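Our preliminary data section would be incomplete without showing what the modeling component actually yields. Below, a chain of 401 amino acids is followed by its predicted structure, encoded as tokens that our downstream tools consume directly.
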Amino acid sequence: MQRLQAFKYELMPNAEQQRDMRRFAGSCRFVYNKALALQKQRYEQGEKKLGYAGLCKLLTEWRNGTDTPWLKDAPVHPLQQTLKDLERAYANFFAKRADFPRFKKKGRSDSFRYPDPKQIKLDQANSRIFVPKLGWLRYRNSREVLGEVKQVTVSGSGGKGFVSIQTQREVEQPRHASGSMVGLDAGVAMFATLSDGTVYAPVHSYRKHEQRLAFLQRQMSRNTKFSNNWKRAKVRVRKLHSRIANLRRDTLHKTSHEISQNHAIVVIEDLQVRNMSKSAAGSVQTPGRNVRAKSGLNKSILDQGWFEFRRQLEYKQQWRGGWVIAVAPQNTSQTCPACGYVAKENRKTQAQFECVECGYSENADLNAARNILAAGYAVLACGESVQLGRSVKQEPIATAR
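Predicted structure:
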């Protein structure tokens, strides 16, 4: 089977390359915003949306025009890839997978992509990579790049530059070393609880740095905007945000790696994180209830990174020959595994489950994980086909005995 994998490294560019990287990222951002503004203008005028080919023709005019001659300094392929990103954003919006495309802002997700492997040269022995108009870039060679290079993405985050090398290679059909099946309950108080009793505590990377972040943001707000002091304060805020994201990402990778390594089948809840973390503020006409409490809950939910955790778990299970089964989350925390009675009164507290019908008592998260595991067995009993690493949805647990 073919495996697509990306290897990310920190870059060590010189001063000139750093300036060029910022300029190229700015050019890509300018092209994206200009194309998005044009598409919105055409929509308001009742005209048809331009496709990728039409936007590429306009890109040639912009590069050769007198208003934006500096676009010629940037490599053309990354600019074209930016238009592809916009086309993909529209497709995701029409398919209701994402919100309407928004204008890009400087300093957020600054990156550009080289799609042609013929223009890329990788010299792993000397820890350097060649890309058009940037030349040879040195990087911190922390591990070997495996497979054939397909494309390269240069990005910036927290004041540092990174290169992501996507490769493709043939691997043998995987077969998981373990034969166990486990249910997983995700939560806020405990990040993950497995049906075998294993518990993974949350890191709360944002909560731990929340006060420090607020302090730095207040400092930045007291400085004159775009002054040197303001820019230095903004760098400190950006670095702290990067540290928070790195801590969360590191925890998710370690946890998903351990779970996928020890269990062939992982049953999870099909959580709609976007709906769970929606604001409860409401409007002026219909104000929301318990807005402050819901805001705190939303912050804690997003701090856990549930969606990214599921994504990592799925592709790691696919690489190892395992499976991920997603079941409906309804009533998993209110169902008694002993007698099957379902009632919200069974959940005495956040941490304790006690059935009002038969008196069965257990930790609430562990009880939910066992119910999730039972729902996973129901999926397999139905004989539904399960692909490697893919999630299979199941109907919710019945609401009555």
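Residues 21 and 134 are 8 Å apart (CA to CA). The longest strand covers residues 160-170. Preliminary results of this kind motivate Aim 1 of the renewal.
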